[in-house]
């Protein structure tokens, strides 16, 4: 089965690469040392320090595998959006909520980099799904957790 592509900005890719490097070079060494020290306490069958270190090791190794898979499937986004004039990954979009009269600007990103507090929304979020592929002037219905709303696309950068 083909693995799903993961869309990341250059900064997002760099952060994941740095995290992977840190886990492989620093955390692995630290945990190996904790395991070594815990073994010195004697019987590992009832050694909570040893058990804790082994659990942390399993968690770190799982995260390393997850990061390696993500990086293997990463596709870099550019922040200029779709050249077709339609909303796409990497587009910066200004929309108006027609029900409330409020305007918002969002950057459309992949799910790993979504952060609504920073106006970075996923293409798989309710608003992202509704506006993907649309052009300036389009009015779309958004099926959001707080209820349905209508938005109009004002600008695409």
UniProtKB/TrEMBL annotation:
Regarding protein family, the annotation reads: Belongs to the GreA/GreB family.
Q: What does the record list as coiled-coil region(s)?
A: 13-70
Q: Which GO terms describe its molecular function?
A: DNA binding; RNA polymerase binding; translation elongation factor activity
- Quote the function comment for this protein: Necessary for efficient RNA polymerase transcription elongation past template-encoded arresting sites. The arresting sites in DNA have the property of trapping a certain fraction of elongating RNA polymerases that pass through, resulting in locked ternary complexes. Cleavage of the nascent transcript by cleavage factors such as GreA or GreB allows the resumption of elongation from the new 3'terminus. GreA releases sequences of 2 to 3 nucleotides.
Q: Which domain of life is it from?
A: Bacteria
State the gene name recorded for this protein. greA
- Native source organism of the sequence: Caldinitratiruptor microaerophilus
One GO biological process term: DNA-templated transcription elongation
Question: What are the Transcription elongation factor GreA/GreB C-terminal domain coordinates in residue numbering?
Answer: 83-157
Entries under PROSITE patterns matching the protein:
GREAB_1
Domain Transcription elongation factor GreA/GreB N-terminal span(s) in chain numbering: 6-76
Q: What is this protein called?
A: Transcription elongation factor GreA
Q: Which Pfam families match?
A: GreA_GreB, GreA_GreB_N
Ranked from the top, the taxonomy reads:
Bacteria, Bacillati, Bacillota, Clostridia, Eubacteriales
The alphabetized UniProt keywords are: Coiled coil, DNA-binding, Elongation factor, Protein biosynthesis, Transcription, Transcription regulation
